[in-house]
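--- STAGE predict ---
source: upstream dedup step, 1 unique chain passed
mode: sequence only
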Amino acid sequence: MRQFFFICVAIFLFSCKNPKSEKENLKEISPENSISSNDSADVDAIAMKDFREFKVLDSKYINVEDLWAPFNADLEDFTEDQYNSLKSLVLERDIPTLQKEIREGQLSYENLVKFYLYRIRKFDRENDMSLNSVIALNPNIISEARQKDRELLNRKLKPPIF
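--- STAGE serialize ---
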């Protein structure tokens, strides 16, 4: 029993942390990479900037024209007026509500897809304050939406995920 006690005490003593600060440990490991007061001042200066002062850059690998090429023809007839008329049916709605509106004929899958494509183009790509968060779009999404609209004509019970 006494040996067990000594082993536990030894483990405890060797597992105690080094009282040196994290900065001192970093300087010991690599003095050329240590944190200086200038570096922390630079970080503080950046942290205090307003987010609108930073320039948003898009990926150099994404060609915006190529991203929108599959949709240009289909979105030509989708106007700002159509977008505004669909806003009340789409925004701030949950999926069951959208499905109910589609079943009742107030909305179609095709118009829903066009609404969101228009919105992505308008807010995510074609303004100075855009986030450029969309990096890929399904090029077949409009034809898939049209197919879902055709399948909807079949009045069989649809699963909730339809």
